[in-house]
Amino acid sequence: MRCVTHDDAPLLADLMPWSVAPVRPGRGWPTAPDPASLKARWNALLKAQGPDREALFGPTRSRTLHSAVAQLPGQSSGTGRLARESGPCPEPVRVLSGPFDEQWLIPDHRLIDAARPELWRVADERQMFAVEQPLVPEPSGPALLVSSVLPVGAGRGGRVRPLFRRPGGLEPNLAPGLLDHLASRLGHSPGAVDVLAWSVAVARPGRDGCAVPLTGDADVWERGVELGRRMLWLMRRDGERPRLPGGRRPYVRAPLPGLPRARVRSGAPAPALDLRYDRDEEVLHVDEGRISPVPPEAWDFEAGGVRILERWFTVRTEPPEPGTLEAIRPTAWPQAWTSELLELVTVLALLAELRPQLAELTVRSPVTRSELRGAGVLPVPDAARRPASVLDHHEEGPDGQFALI
Questions:
Q1: pTM of this prediction?
Q2: CA-based nearest residue to 192, from 33, 18, 42
Q3: Residues of the domain holding 367
Q4: Mind listing the pLDDT tens digit for each residue in 144-158?
């Protein structure tokens, strides 16, 4: 994207003022790439008694087996002390565990050090969560990632900014007066999703956060929103599945192998899967397994300075420590992972294809921070930076008590 200057460009924090710190699980075992492993881990935890259960759980200053916490909004997990728990595993939910990496989480407040209930209250099928990526040397990936599912410990990402402050797609999390001011400049009324799409397309990392240059040129705005909506669709990965044209679609050419076992008791690590990429042949090798074609743009794709495909593999294949709940996992490569991998390659390749068009986007007739201050849009009132009061029902508190917040 080309623009005159970033010095007076609004920040994402100006445009989407309500933000929440990332969910901090505090322990790794309640999150996994497959839900069956989570249920098996839960059963193993409950089977253990006394000190053994405590060691498996992994107590912290925030959570122990005796912590009294409220139920997560919208979930049906227990609220009694975990030391006495004997019921079934709460049904795992889909979450964003890292850039472009959707996994599963046991949605139990007793397992999560900092669950951010205010995010769970507004998470529904209409919600979109924006996460700024950290500033790194020579950034090449998107500065802003968006997910339809709740980001949980999403790598090194920054604060989470929901698009809507209330469930059902109500009350956009935008600076009061921003949409009206943009409408006066553009000659038509943009929607909240349009602002997010534009932001995804043009956001650039900076020391003070993502800069989001705005334009008053209707044609430039329309083009940027079009590209941004395409990026949103690919990032969210809901609805119709993305596909590359025939001849460029990745396929499994040789079966992927089993997973490494846990580290042996001597402490020596078990051999990890050998992951190699052949740039000339566009082949991804996983030991004797082969996937192709995998475009170089997909293999090289980064977010926050991390190569996405390498991280995705590492999370699923790094040998776990023996005797831990993390060691309970599939013994063979699940078919579902193969489907997710092929889709991830497709998504990264299609996103990379948009880079030339994004680079040609020139922000003319900029809408600056100074202009927004003069129009009274900035500074944002303090109330817009706080969560909305969304509760009209009881939430279950510790030990089954109910409270209306």
A1: 0.91
A2: 18
A3: 2-241+360-403
A4: 999 999 999 755 568
